[in-house]
Design brief:
6 strands, globular, 33% strand, 2 helices, alpha+beta
Length: 104
């Protein structure tokens, strides 16, 4: 299983606008059975995230293959990142990463 993570860093007060931007992508991923989730960082290194600093919001979904992950990344993922950049920059940033689950 592969986890595709996109982290959005935005200014305080912009969280609602980001959630509105993410809503269609979350719904699409739900329809496709990709188990999407959206989360916000509340602590880093054991310290609470200051409310007056940028928020880090992660959008994650699950894929059974790298091929299907890369297909989503090249189409829907690229479109989502472009909409984010048009809406929130220059005061924001976005980055993506891929994780593979490990059996223990």
């Amino acid at each position: 299983m592969y986890i595709y993570n996109t982290t959005f860093m935005i200014l305080p007060g912009k969280e609602k606008a980001l959630l509105e931007l993410l809503a269609p992508a979350v719904a699409l991923c739900q329809d496709r059975g990709l188990n999407p989730r959206v989360s916000v960082m509340r602590e880093a290194a054991g310290k609470p995230a200051p409310s007056d600093e940028p928020s880090s919001i992660a959008f994650q979904m699950e894929f059974h293959s790298l091929e299907s992950l890369h297909k989503w990344e090249g189409l829907e993922g690229a479109e989502l990142s472009e909409r984010f950049i048009r809406t929130f920059t220059p005061e924001a940033m976005v980055f993506s990463s891929v994780f593979e689950t490990l059996d223990i």
